[in-house]
Amino acid sequence: MDTSARKSDFLNVNGIHLHYLDWGGNGTVLLFLTGFGISAHIYEKFAPRFTDTFHVVALTRRGHGDSDYPETGYDVDTLTEDVRQSMDALGIDQAILVGHSMANVELCHFAALYPERVLKLVFLEASYDCTSPAYKAMIEKNPVRNITILGVNDDHYTIEDYVAAIKRTYPSLAAIWNEVMDEDLLHAIKKDPAGKIVDRMSEAIGAAISATINSYKPEDSKINAPVLSIFAINDVAFYLPSYPMTAEQRAQTIEFYETLRPALQRECIEQFQRRAPHAKIVVIPKGHHYCFFTHEELVYNEMREFLLL
Prior knowledge:
This protein is α/β, with parallel strands linked by helices. The chain has one domain: 3-Layer(aba) Sandwich (Rossmann fold), CATH 3.40.50.1820. The chain is built from 11 helices and 10 strands. β1 and β2 form a beta hairpin. The radius of gyration is 19 Å and the shape is globular. The model has no long low-confidence stretch (mean pLDDT 96).
């Protein structure tokens, strides 16, 4: 993967250092924000496609990737302030914000606090209200939660073994694993003194971020800027575990992804539409949470059409 065309650097903002990637380009700034546990490197292949029309930048939030890992600051206000100060440090007065997954937190809160600085918003599988009954049901009713995965807590001393363990534990990632994910992972792990591969994000930081995600009530109704929200109805083919299951567990998992979860996802989509009636919504059937990987051309074309309006 050729990354020579972009700049990788750090910003000293809000008392910490945040890592960012800048692919250049002329025109309006297109600022990409990432999902939980993911760094700016996740956009190494997708983001540069927009440099013909936009100045493309991606930011790695605190507690992720090559950014600093302070013990505090994982609340919605601080995370959003990190974005504001990063834009200031980069000389960005206004931008189009694009976010995946948990970036919903920063996208919504930033748009509510600083509407004059937001030109447009793009949500990539990022418009879910984690406080809603429908979303909570999606998590609680997933039968995979009740399956014990053998070896999940084993130690790993090579990156190859670490990646293999991720793939065993998360079949949805195994189904789409690629060189971009390889690169992103290198910035999320380290070796401890014993030589074991461990996540750079501590359990305490992970818990703090999860608490923010699960308690934040999206301020969708306060968004005035044009919005594109892309949802993916999960395809069981991506999510069916490869590890051993009983016949009953397999049947329950298939039913969950083919019947229960899609209905709950559509309820979440309708909820977002009610709160942001001006938003353009695109629903990908048989999709994946990382829709900009599995349905790259569709997502790219929808974004380009929306951004150039």
